[in-house]
């Protein structure tokens, strides 16, 4: 069977072939938008033209069968025009207002989750996990499913003080933008890796392995043609495992996840922020990680109850102070919370003005 | 083909209202034994709490050094269908716009050569096809490229640039994010497909400081739209917000970070000289307030995830630049930035890490951008500063 002729360096097809006529006509000339419900909004152009968006969640892992079903619905209600969002949602781009309600009705009947617009929890940025990555110390997709089943009404209907952006990374490489999320889960190892001294000389380049360690914990071990790890320096990042698989970082019974909070991307009101450690560890409890899910819901609900309108999680925490965040959430403060890495001294308190524990 | 495995743990994740990835894998498994073995291995991971994927195996298509990520099960005897389960990164369109026709074509080819599983989309931006064999790669590439779809980047190369929806649907976009992204992707085809950099290089473009694509946190070059001059105010619409119950003083004036706004119950005023264009007021009163008329972008450089010595957010390098087609000035500047990084970095150093080690000065001198207070939060505190010959000649 002959294959078609390959082409190289053509890049992606140009976007203008995929945008609906109403966008072509009003490109760059939008005037305002209104959120109509948890999952629908309308953009109004200077010309008065309107574009309705209906947003549904996807699990990011999609089968071709589901993609075809989504395509069929977009053909039925919006001439086949659709887009995806940075946060793995699907958006139907509807020009005809009369088709919005029937589309929403069909989506709901087919058990799609309509939501994610406005001051709510949107879909969760996440990584590959056990589904597809060698580094993973948890499963991102499973955590996302368990968390969002529990926070479901915050996606579809219930309002929060502002948007809450969640993320899950399945190892400290953090392939998603976990490090700047309102609430995020990051999987961590807690034990120094074990070295298979027989395999290391066969599989690994020693200088590369030594160089891979950010804390210089690895030294050559010429006797065994292998390496040694200084246990006091190792912070379990797993970089050495990436370079040299016989240095095994996986410890299924000791691996688990941490929760970080208070990060933010936009510049609105306050500068973008990194997320900071809230809870240093939970054991992996597949398939539903009940303790992780409960902890996230607790943080979300304490925020919802205490934050001012428009405050993001990180802005709220900075206003009340981290000491009060630990008070209000009841989260225990541990040695792990005190930074001892590259940015440590910026985090130590340099004033006698602070709040007491309640 | 499906149903080879009992999956009691994963079945739990088909319950509940949120869409289930397990259901998706099962749907693919009806047609593909690869997807079925993926399901079997995943159930095992759920039982033993560890992954079974192997790191290793350079694979790809002729003439390209990236775009395919080799992936092998470490249990090939137990799960032969995923002995090879490679990822193919396909360039997404700017703004992730598709038509049903195009997506169905993509699905048809993928069903023929792969597992039928996808990620819509990968965190880098690419449309990710999950799971195929080395043998099928050339055919997959021929089928897609002949229909106008190319591979994305991987390894030490440019990554597929990505952007927010911008002028396609957003009233705040100060630049044409979709077109910039398309133009830059075309400009850097060679850098994308043939890894020759010290490490990865990502470009993300957001139309305004709301930054819906997280450019500031996960791109080596973050292009963020902004404006000069006064925010445009429609006082009649301000009144409508007040009439509809918005507490303008509490929600807008008091939350303005630069305290440059006032509202006396009738007229909303902005002291635009003090405004830092944070977007709060515009985002909350979209009918009444609009960005100023002179539009452009801020260029920031250096963000990355924490591996290895800590996360970085991008730093302001060029406070304001006009970005209009054909983007010649922008392209020249990007090439100059990459050139400096390529010459200066050790292997596997991102541009942000090199900037931290070398300081901003050599970089700014190389790309021809003068020092400006907009580049720092505050000037230095210590007296240990250096002088170079060129400083004395002045
Ligand atoms: C200094 C050494 C190394 C570092 C820092 C490193 C780092 C990385 C990084 C960052 C990626 C992700 C690339 C992307 O996002 O496109 C990656 C992928 C990959 N690396 Fe390494 N790597 C190293 C050495 C190796 C070695 C020695 C092997 C093979 C024995 C290897 C095999 C792979 C493979 C196959 C992938 C694709 C991932 C996949 O299968 O999904 N790497 N590596
Ligand atoms: C079957 C054997 C191997 C395969 C399939 C393989 C695969 C790879 C891949 C895919 C990468 C690119 C990582 C990225 O995405 O950036 C990589 C990088 C690397 N590999 Fe290998 N690798 C193999 C063996 C080795 C061996 C034996 C060594 C050392 C003795 C080695 C050293 C490295 C180093 C140092 C890098 C990082 C290169 C750089 O970007 O500077 N690899 N390898
Ligand atoms: C030594 C460090 C790293 C290693 C070994 C590594 C390895 C990998 C591997 C193996 C994958 C492919 C997962 C799959 O599809 O099977 C991947 C994906 C990815 N990596 Fe990394 N990575 C590293 C660091 C980073 C860093 C620092 C970033 C971000 C700044 C990053 C961003 C990404 C992104 C965006 C993806 C696509 C993920 C997705 O779509 O879910 N990686 N990486
Ligand atoms: S976060 Fe870690 S485990 Fe997850 S996909 Fe990225 S490299 Fe793999
Ligand atoms: S896990 Fe990280 S810190 Fe520990 S030895 Fe390996 S590379 Fe070094
Ligand atoms: S980043 Fe700004 S311009 Fe782009 S979609 Fe978001 S709000 Fe609109
Ligand atoms: S954009 Fe931000 S700084 Fe400027 S007036 Fe509005 S709220 Fe104040």
How does this structure look, described?
The complex is a heterodimer of chains A (358) and B (394). With 358 residues, chain A is an alpha+beta fold. Chain A folds into 3 domains: 20-109, Alpha-Beta Plaits; 125-190 and 252-340, 2-Layer Sandwich (Sulfite Reductase Hemoprotein, domain 1), CATH 3.30.413.10; 195-235, Alpha-Beta Plaits (2-Layer Sandwich), CATH 3.30.70. Chain A contains 11 helices and 15 strands. In chain A, the strands form 4 sheets. A 5-stranded antiparallel beta sheet of chain A has the order 1-2-3-6-5. A 5-stranded mixed beta sheet of chain A has the order 7-8-9-14-15, with helices on one face. In chain A, strands 10-13 form a two-stranded antiparallel sheet. In chain A, strand 11 (218-221) and strand 12 (226-229) form a beta hairpin. Chain A is globular. The mean pLDDT of chain A is 94. With 394 residues, chain B is of the alpha+beta class. Chain B has 3 domains: 8-146, Alpha-Beta Plaits, CATH 3.30.70; 162-227 and 294-393, Sulfite Reductase Hemoprotein, domain 1 (2-Layer Sandwich), CATH 3.30.413.10; 230-290, Alpha-Beta Plaits (2-Layer Sandwich). A 5-stranded mixed beta sheet of chain B has the order 8-9-10-15-16. Chain B has a 4-stranded antiparallel beta sheet with strand order 2-4-7-6. In chain B, strands 1-3 form a two-stranded antiparallel sheet. The longest helix of chain B has 17 residues, at 328-344. Classes of the chains: A alpha+beta (358), B alpha+beta (394). At the A-B interface, strand 1, strand 3, strand 4, helix 2 and strand 5 of A face helix 1, helix 2, helix 3, strand 1 and strand 5 of B. Strand 5 (81-84) of chain A pairs antiparallel with strand 5 (97-99) of chain B. One protoporphyrin IX containing FE sits between chains B (69, 71, 87, 119, 122-124, 128, 218, 304-305, 307) and A (127-128, 132-133, 135, 173, 175, 239, 242).
